[in-house]
Amino acid sequence: MIKHCLGLAATLAFGVGLITPTLADPVGAPAPVGSDSSMSGSMMSGGMHMEHGFPAGLAGPDGNAYTGAPDLQAAVSLVVAGGPIGNFSVVKAISVMAGPATANAEVAKLTKQYGKGNVALFVTVQNFAVNDAVKRANAAGVKFPKPMLTGTTLAKRVVTLGLINATYYEGVQLDHLVTHGIHEAVMADIDAKYGAAADANYHRIADQAHYDLAHALGVTSVKLASYH
User: Which among 27, 29, 50, 28 is positioned nearest to 39, based on CA atoms?
Assistant: First the structure.
């Protein structure tokens, strides 16, 4: 049951970006505005090392890699929040964690900030990533505890997992949820299916969305990463 849940799935779950509950998850989406979806997963740009279409380390959205044990409770709770298993919905997950009002306000903000096409692509990649993580977790025989977290408690937990010196980094959160190895494997799958530009778009919006979520929940000490 929960075993098939894949804690990894949470891997993306909360880049969630707060999409309105009345907005259907897009089946497909255009490439990010002003970007090349055929970009390679690792390259040099202006002398800066790039991974998955964005700068590595603290200059990008991944921060410094976390290689410790994953938070399986947060992972499985996040996957269940956006279930059913294998058909994850970012729309459902954010509605469960933050409520419809916060979701509606955030989707409007993100759409104005990044554009409708980029937000739609973000949702598409998020859902794919979680489902892909589920498959990888099942294949690895990962066993998870019974989900116990929900609502704002779950939201604050996943945001906290992404912090380095109070600044939120999507990659750090994913490392804590599904391990660094699985996180990287899922990102490689995203690059192969949608392109590195789509991967970068996902991380950029996820950083902004988590920062917004934290502040909406009163956790105003959280800072915004430079890559957003």
Answer: 50
Tokens found for residue 93: 């997950």
- What is the Cβ-side half-sphere exposure of residue 161, based on CA atoms within 13 angstroms? 33
Total domains, the chain:
1
Query: Looking at per-residue confidence, does 10 or 95 come out higher?
Result: 95
> Hey, what amino acid is at 135?
K
What is the per-residue pLDDT across 76-116, written as a single tens digit (0 to 9) for each?
A: 998 999 888 888 887 788 888 989 888 888 889 999 999 99
Does a structural domain hold residue 56?
A: no
- CB-CB neighbours of 27 under 10 Å: 8
Show the CA angle centred on residue 134, arms to residues 129 and 137, nearest 5°. Answer: 120
